[in-house]
Amino acid sequence: MKLLVLLSRVPYPLDKGDKLRAFNQIKQLSKKHQIILFALNDTTLDETALSELKKYCIAISIIKFSWFTIFFNLLKTFFSGLPFQAGYFYFSKAQKKVDELIKKHKPDHIYCQLIRTAEYVKSYSDIPKTLDYMDVFSKGMERRKYTDPFYMKPLLFLEHRRLLKYERKVFDYFNNKTIISEQDKNLINHPKSQQIRVVPNGVDTEYFKNITHQKKFELLFNGNMNYPPNIESVEYLVSKVMPLVWKKLPNVRLLISGASPHKRVVALKSNKVEVSGWVDDIRENFAKCKLLIAPMQISIGLQNKLLEAMAMQLPCITSTLANNALGAKPGEQILVADTPEQYAAYIFELLQDEEKAKRIALNGYKYVTTNFNWQTTTALLDSLFNKKQ
């Protein structure tokens, strides 16, 4: 089967959740299908991206757009009624390229990741199409209405309303719809939302595996550190949880690891908090730490940080919201907290009870490697492509 894949970002390097999901799905799908990749790009293209993607794609089209185009798109979107999450990524030059690819390759199926790419193929009713909502943007925007600075609120309220309407509208453009978790599926405002198929993320268990390393930090928070939910969560960790930890264990050190740390994250640096930024081999940062803490404050998506840490046999503490998507057993495969006091108590427990830490880590490892591998999760997606429409 010829499969046209549309992405809002070039899926390499793997420094963001949508890139990680797209890259690993393409890698698995390429074993059975011919992949024609179309990706938008608003930044400098990594010099290794094309060579890596050519291993899995028979054709690659990357459309770069400038800051002038972005400004024009946002201005146009303000008056068009589209959410900015869609309008930012839609422009005529890219539409022309998508039309050319469809005419040239005659794909048997079109796969769009995120609602950002839906506009490009909405008129192609004669080709079966699948949309991966992945996350529910409207839910994230709803939370930002109350957490972002006051001068952003009018725009965020507008975007939230538009996203709710658009997430419902694009549902009907596509034959199949997928999403990352059951929790997210229930947030899509459409009468037929239960038709959405849950396709979780996976983890590369050949890459993320237990390795020996000197422990330089007690705690780790990992992720794209320019992503608002991660920024909010790590600020909560440093301002609310860590003072309780340091009161009892003053020498505990925290490593904040991940690409593109926002200035609010950099401001958290101290003699007890290190911000690493991007590292070439993220496994080293996992291996340097005794446990991972992910006090996520928003209930969208499946946290790759948890999958990767558990695959590397690192005990994890997270929130109820994050574990709802993961589905691990609290107290056996993961520890779940919802207040600073609960997080601090679990940190004390795992740092002081080595046997319990090992037991949680091993159980978490078994759970993730059994239920979250890319071969299994992508097979769920592939079954939709092969379904008779």
What does this structure look like?
By secondary structure, the chain is α/β, with parallel strands linked by helices. The protein has 2 domains: 212 residues, Glycogen Phosphorylase B (Rossmann fold, 3-Layer(aba) Sandwich), CATH 3.40.50; 155 residues, Rossmann fold (3-Layer(aba) Sandwich). The chain is 44% helix and 16% strand. The longest helix has 21 residues.
Brief summary of the model shown:
This protein has 389 residues and is of the alpha/beta class. It contains 16 helices and 13 strands. It has helices at 17-29, 49-53, 67-80, 84-87, 92-105, 137-147, 153-171, 182-185, 228-248, 263-266, 282-287, 304-311, 320-326, 340-352, 354-371, 374-385, and strands spanning 2-7, 34-41, 59-64, 109-113, 129-134, 176-179, 197-198, 217-222, 254-257, 273-277, 289-294, 316-318, 335-336.
Estimated helix fraction: 40-55%
CATH superfamily of the largest domain, called what? Glycogen Phosphorylase B
Order of helices and strands: EHEHEHHHEEHHEHEEHEHEHEHEHEHHH
- Span between N and C termini? 15 Å
CATH fold call of the largest domain: Rossmann fold
Summarize the biggest pleated sheet.
7 strands, parallel
Radius of gyration, CA atoms, in whole angstroms: 21 Å
What's the layout of helices and strands?
Layout (H helix, E strand, L loop, with lengths): L1 E6 L9 H13 L4 E8 L7 H5 L5 E6 L2 H14 L3 H4 L4 H14 L3 E5 L15 E6 L2 H11 L5 H19 L4 E4 L2 H4 L11 E2 L18 E6 L5 H21 L5 E4 L5 H4 L6 E5 L4 H6 L1 E6 L9 H8 L4 E3 L1 H7 L8 E2 L3 H13 L1 H18 L2 H12 L4
Parallel strand pairs: 1-2, 1-4, 2-3, 4-5, 5-6, 6-7, 8-9, 8-11, 9-10, 11-12, 12-13
Helix pairs in contact: 1-16, 6-7, 9-14, 14-15
